[in-house]
Amino acid sequence: MFNSLSGRFFLLTAVFVLLAEVLIFVPSIARFRSDFLMARVERAQIASLVLLADDMISTELERELLLNAGVYNVVLRRDSSRQLALASELPAPVSQTFDLRQPAWTALVRDAFRRLSKPEFEVVRVIGGPKLKAGSLIEVTLNTGPLRDAMWAFSQRILILSALLSVAAALLLFVATRFMIVTPIRRVIAQIENYQTAPEEAQRIIELKAGIVELRAAELALQSMQKNLTSALNHKERLAQLGEAVAKVSHDLRNILTTVQLISERLTQSEDPVVMRLAPKLEANVARAVTLAETTLSFGRASEPAPILGQVDLTSLLQDVVETELMAISQLQIEVRFEISENLIIRADREQLHRALSNLVRNARQALADQSQDGAIVLKAWQNPQFWLIDVVDNGPGLPEKAKAHLFKPFQGTATGGGSGLGLTIVQELMRGHGGSAEYLEVNGSGACFRLMLPKLTYDNAE
């Protein structure tokens, strides 16, 4: 029971109520003792009034008056004279004197607990002020036994009342907690468990029903998280289905491209000058398409294959990439410039780097295709002590904010209506395979800049 939230509320409430009763008990027991002694003083004063009617009373009457007052002696002081009104034999010497006329509260508390802790009786003197100004003071001597018994009886009543109040308050809080807090929490837990069984189903997302502000905020956050998770799961499922379809297409496409490759090899034997000039490029691009189809098949099973590193002449590679796009670029007013450090030899997988740069140059060309002004693509390459760096810069319209937020996510990073959104994802994965990265850099004015960073590792470029 006490491991539950409502059970702990029950326990804490009972403890706190008892603690509050203890704090109330301390001044209450001190007040009870003071009132008990003052009552004895008042009763003694009333008993002494008999002397006003008759100065001489019998011993039996005096004993009965003292017994009814619960005291041994009564002394009245009027003006400056001190008069022993009623007297009897003391069973023991007076051990203490208490003045109740202007007592300090700390002294009252201290004396009350001292009396509770002493089981043996004592004879004490109590000084108080007479009622109705019937003198300057009145003194009585009495036995502390009845006082201690009355104080213990009062303490027991307070204890029983405190226990009953604490249990009643705890039960009320227990019921209220279960109804107002525990039940809504259990409903949320049940909905979480229901969602857990099939998180891809949108109808299992939690509904907002809590009336408590904090719990409703928790439901709102949970609902948002579940919506995002369901959307992500459904998106991944669609990607998996698409990947399976692409793998099937790539399998058949590879077979077709193999046939085209054989034909292109026969074209190299032609004596036509135009065919002789274009056939090697056709053969190289068909071979690259076959490799891409085979890579796509392996991507469906795992990820991009590990790069096969070798020395790559970056100038030659960039020129090859541009020549591949030359036919499309020649139909547009696009200028291509190279800003490459002299004799820049890097260590990379030539085929994978060619694919990454082709994607970036193609994206730049497509961004410039729809603008009226002349476009330019600048290919920069240089090195620092840690990296080889390649920038592909264009002066096109740049990227919208929505595209920037999802640049390297599959099917989400495209800035054109006809794009697939896979190009930049492939570029990023290829760069990570090299231990490097691809990033987008802001350009002053219009345009876009993508940077490839390839680590030098332990390779010495001077070799």
Biggest sheet features: 5 strands, mixed
Number of helices: 12
Main sheet: strand order? 2-1-5-4-3
Q: Name the helix and strand elements from N-terminus to C-terminus, one letter apiece.
A: HHHEEEHEEHHHEHHEEHEEHHEE
Please indicate the percent range of residues in DSSP E strands (runs of 2 or more): 15-25%
List keywords for this structure.
single chain; 463 residues; alpha+beta; Helix Hairpins; Heat Shock Protein 90; 3 domains; five-stranded mixed beta sheet; 12 helices; 16% strand; rod-shaped
Write structural notes for this entry:
The chain is α+β, with helices and mostly antiparallel strands and 463 residues long. It has three domains: 5-171, no CATH class; 208-302, Helix Hairpins; 309-455, Heat Shock Protein 90. The protein is built from twelve helices and twelve strands. The chain has helices at 5-48, 50-53, 59-69, 105-117, 144-197, 213-267, 273-301, 314-324, 326-330, 350-369, 401-405, 423-433; strands at 73-78, 81-86, 94-99, 123-128, 137-143, 310-313, 334-340, 345-348, 375-383, 387-394, 437-441, 448-455. Strands 2-1-5-4-3 form a five-stranded mixed β-sheet. Strands 7-9-10-12-11 form a five-stranded mixed β-sheet, with helices on one face. The protein has a two-stranded antiparallel ribbon with strand order 6-8. Strand 3, helix 4 and strand 4 (123-128) form a beta-alpha-beta unit. Helix 6 (213-267) runs antiparallel to helix 7 and helix 10 runs antiparallel to helix 12. The longest helix is centred in the middle third of the chain and has 55 residues, at 213-267. It is rod-shaped and about 160 Å long. Mean pLDDT is 80; it is low at 458-463.
